[in-house]
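**User:** Hello, beginner here. Are you able to go through the protein record under this note? It all follows right here:
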Amino acid sequence: MTARHKWLEHIHSPTARAIVNRVITEARLHPEEFFSAARERPLVKARMHAASQLVAAKFTPYRIGFFLKRNHSTIAYYLGAEGTSRSSKYYYRRVLRHLSPDHRQAVVDYAASEAVSVEVLVAQWVGERIEHEIRAKARAAA
C-alpha cells in the first residue's frame, strides 16, 4: 500500500475514493494536507471541488463529510446548501403548501435549474412583483 492509499483507506466506496484521489492529484496536494485542519484557500477550494463531485455522484452530505473528514455542516457550507437547516425546511414546506401541486413542482424544478433555493426564488419574484405594483401605482397617480 502506497502512502497515498494509506490516507484514503477510510473511504470504502471505490467511486468516492477515485473522486477524492483525482481531486487531490489535480490540485497537486498531498493527502495529508487535504485531510488536515488547515484552511488555506487552495485546500478549501480542493475540498469544495471534491464535495461537489461527490454530490454529483449522489453521495449525501453526511457521507461526504465522512469521506473528507469534515462535519456535515461544513459540507453544506461548501455546497452552498442554505436549505438544509430544519427552519429552512419548515419555511420551504410552508411556502409551497399554498401552491397547487403542479405549480409546486414547477417552482421546485425552476429553483433547481437556476441553482438557487426556493426561498431565494420566491423572494426574487415577490421583489419583482412589488416593483411592478409600485410602478403601476405611480402611473395611475400621474
